[in-house]
Predict the structure.
Amino acid sequence: MTGKTIHEIQIGDSAAFSKTISESDVYLYAGITGDFNPAHVNQPYAEKTFFKARIAHGLLSAGFLSTVIATQLPGPGTIYVRQELNFTAPVYMGDTVTASATVLEVDRDKNRVTLETLCRNQYGKVVVEGRAIVSPPPEG
């Protein structure tokens, strides 16, 4: 199975993926990456921060953008070239994050697609915003 090729992609195409963040997601991410920042894994410490509770790793939410790109738009076979990210709000355990990608530009000569990438929480608040450049799978 392969994703959409450059000739199948149009400006405005979009796709999304949603996941509710669990405590185990945060601990598994910490274990995989080695990022045991107490803001993520230590409740007494986190209560003293301006967030007042533990927060999920920003890159955990941003990773859902990769899910959208790798599985839907353009889909399987796509190669990431660049991703810019701004973390605009915290994500807490129990929040549902919806990652989305929308096509902004299509460069058929270079086989590159520029995507607006966003993650929103269950209230519609943007928690991660950015842009990605990807190379869709080859034709045939």
Notes: The chain has a mean pLDDT of 97. The helical segments are 23-33, 38-41, 43-47, 58-71.
